[in-house]
Specification:
The structure is a homodimer of 193-residue chains. The first copy, chain A, has 193 residues and is mainly beta. Helices cover 13% and strands 45% of the residues of chain A. The mean pLDDT of chain A is 96.
Chain lengths: 193, 193
């Protein structure tokens, strides 16, 4: 039995990424759940921002940003960066995060996040009360201690998960299978007409 | 210490959603990790598809779709729907999924997925070798046994998580905090000039 809850943005699991905008000298952090990869060639990521957001003004002045994947144990810091505005406070200082100089863009990435992407804006799209920002990913940083046998170790990254509507932060449980592999157990049959 | 791995789409956690296109009589399923909510007003979701995908042809013929959140224990079915093309086979039959009639769109949702959204295409954007499909969410269905005290119970939904690049399916672990609440522990200070 299905229950209808109406037109809703109830959708999870989501990442809870920290997007840094502004400049190297004056960076700001915003928490974004509505973010995903949109292309592999070139690597491109997109996220949604309310038009009134301070971060949107900053990204229009300096059209670069970094995406930072926080570990689950920083969920309080992540939540804080989504609650307050950079107009009013310096969030790097408030949550004691360290700004690391980026290689390709004049905006820092966050040391305390094990996975970071440097991005430059390639497109902005209007969508009602929101702007969708598309950024080409120029470089990816991973903490050097988050690899096992030269492969990124998800358990060591320990990424934070967000579930909207219920407004809950979760961590990951267990690896249960491999992509482009687990599905090979099904026989592929001819389509019936 | 950070290690640089180049311009990459390494980004997780991601959902691993099943998008159904086509028609009620002839539906097709595709697995999409590059999908996220982009607006709340009206509720809107977007996802990325390679131009060559069969599902893109189907969605252009009938510009509606459903988004279905699979439970973690269906990871083999999910993986299969990402490996094979609906041009060659009937994936509903192959993985033994049940097509349920939708209320607002002429394309079904999947019974075996505890969370489903009915959507109509409101925009398509070209992005190199890909199309980004934007859909307004018209209705959300949740299995009636996935609530606890009238609130959606994430543990009961048990959503599947995908980690790209390492190509791993994961389940969720534990709830660790509440959004728009956990961050209130930090003192908000005046921005230093």
């Amino acid at each position: 039995m299905k229950k209808q809850i109406g037109a809703s943005t109830t959708f999870f699991p989501m990442p809870s990424a920290l997007v840094v905008t502004g400049t190297a000298k004056n960076p700001n952090i915003i928490t974004i759940g509505w973010i995903c990869i949109v292309s592999g060639n070139p690597p491109t990521i997109a996220f949604s921002l309310l038009n009134k957001r301070h971060s949107l003004q900053l990204i229009r002045k300096n059209p670069v940003f970094t995406v930072n994947i926080p570990p689950a144990d920083k969920y309080k810091e992540v939540d804080y960066c989504g609650i307050v505005s950079g107009k009013d406070t310096n969030k790097f200082r408030d949550v004691n995060f360290t700004a690391l100089k980026s290689l390709n863009v004049d905006v820092p990435h966050i040391k305390e996040c094990p996975l970071n992407m440097e991005c430059k804006v390639i497109k902005e799209m209007e969508l009602g009360e929101r702007a969708i920002i598309f950024g080409e990913i120029l470089e990816t940083h991973v903490d050097s201690d988050k690899f096992t046998k030269n492969k990124i170790d998800v358990k060591k990254i320990n990424p934070l998960v967000y579930c909207s509507t219920v407004r809950e932060y979760w961590n990951l449980g267990e690896k249960i299978g491999l992509g482009f592999s687990a599905g090979n157990c099904f026989p592929k049959e001819k389509k019936s007409k």
